[in-house]
Write a structure and sequence with these properties.
Shape: globular
InterPro entries: Ig-like_dom, Ig-like_dom_sf, Ig-like_fold, Ig_sub, Ig_V-set
Domain Ig-like: 30-153
Number of strands: 9
Number of helices: 2
Distance between the termini: 81 Å
Transmembrane segments: 21-37
Strand content: 25-35%
Largest sheet: 6 strands, mixed
Keywords: Membrane, Transmembrane, Transmembrane helix
Helix content: 10-25%
Protein name: Ig-like domain-containing protein
Length: 170
């Protein structure tokens, strides 16, 4: 229904446009919700590390377009809302990119090895609390953002030694 509101200075045309906007937005809202739950499958790798050893989480930073370059690499752990490690190469070469590690998660134990294929996030002195699903997000200058996941399983030394003893008895 169209209302005339002379007191606020809006015209009949404004109200008619608002009604048309509702006609467009309301049917699109369920599609937006469905799209949020139908996110494209992200490939997942599985890595196992022992407590105290180093773990290496792969991340494909290769470019697919000629002249393209990596601008930003962000690592997230699924149970945390913010990134835990980043490499920011915006306005600089990737080799001298600014690196950051969350002090509460990795502190100085994490480093990025971009010369490996695929590139690797190294975690020294792995702890049981490092276990989880990590997501690597790579933003490019030209190409589409790429995501990959890594499931890091950390085995405690006691559990590993018990398992080794059990296997040797067989």
């Amino acid at each position: 229904m169209i209302y005339f509101r002379p007191h606020d200075g809006r015209s009949l045309r404004y109200n008619a446009n608002a009604r048309h906007l509702n006609v467009l937005v309301v049917p699109l809202f369920p599609l937006w919700i469905i799209g949020a739950f139908c996110v494209k499958d992200i490939p997942i790798s599985h890595i196992v590390a022992l407590v105290g050893d180093s773990a290496y989480l792969p991340c494909d930073i290769s470019t697919t377009h000629e002249g393209d370059s990596v601008h930003l690499v962000l690592w997230y752990r699924e149970d945390l809302g913010t990134s835990v490690y980043s490499i920011d190469a915006r306005n600089r070469e990737f080799g001298i990119a600014e690196r950051w590690s969350d002090d509460t998660v990795f502190s100085h134990r994490a480093y990025f090895m971009l010369d490996k294929k695929p590139a690797l996030l190294g975690i020294e002195n792995t702890r049981e609390e490092d276990a989880g699903i990590y997501r690597c997000r790579v933003d490019f200058q030209i190409g589409q953002t790429r995501n990959s996941k890594v499931n890091l399983t950390v085995i405690g030394k006691f559990l590993f030694s018990s398992y080794s003893i059990f296997r040797s008895v067989r």
